[in-house]
Structures are given as C-alpha cells and as structure tokens.
C-alpha cells in the first residue's frame, strides 16, 4: 500500500490523497506537478522516474489512512 505522503518534498504544496496532481518515484518520494515538471520527471533523491500517483478515495482513507508526516524541510 502506498504511503500517500501529504506534501511536495521540494516546495511544501499540500497533496491530498484524494486529489490528482502528485508524482512519485519507486521509493515514494513525492512532488507536485509543477516541481515534477521542473525536475524533468526525474527524482532528485534517487534518480528514478516520477510517475502520476494514484488517488485514494475518502472512503478508503478511513480504512487505509494516508501519511501525515510532512517531508518538506523548507
């Protein structure tokens, strides 16, 4: 199951689990669409490809809650 991180690691933008617009690599490093585009869809942490993160419906979030740990270091 994906961790569904709540924010962009590069700029801190909120990335709700139920909303499109998040991009992840195979290690689940998470970036917003704007940052992923600026990074040319390459993860700056591992060099992996950034792909669209699937969404998780609110109903499923009750059973499988997304992470609340923010990764942005500002």
Write the layout of secondary structure elements.
Layout: E1 22-24, E2 30-32, H1 33-38, E3 51-52, H2 58-63
Antiparallel strand pairs: 1-2, 1-3
Which key terms come to mind for this protein?
74 residues; alpha+beta; 2 helices; 11% strand; DUF1272 domain-containing protein; DUF1272
What features would you describe in this structure?
- The protein is α+β, with helices and mostly antiparallel strands and 74 residues long.
- A hairpin with a 5-residue loop joins strand 1 and strand 2.
- It has two helices and three strands; from the N terminus they run E-E-H-E-H.
Question: Within the largest sheet, what's the order of strands?
Answer: 2-1-3
Please tally the helical runs, counting DSSP H or I stretches of 4 or more residues.
Answer: 2
N- and C-termini, Cα separation: 27 Å
Quote the average pLDDT.
Answer: 96
Assess the beta-strand content as a share of residues.
5-15%
Percent in helix: 10-25%
List SSEs in N-to-C order: EEHEH
- Radius of gyration, whole Å: 12 Å
Total DSSP E strands: 3
| Spans of at least 5 consecutive residues with low confidence | none
Tertiary shape: globular
Derived structural class: alpha+beta
Query: What profile does the largest beta sheet have?
Result: 3 strands, antiparallel
Protein name: DUF1272 domain-containing protein
Pfam families: DUF1272
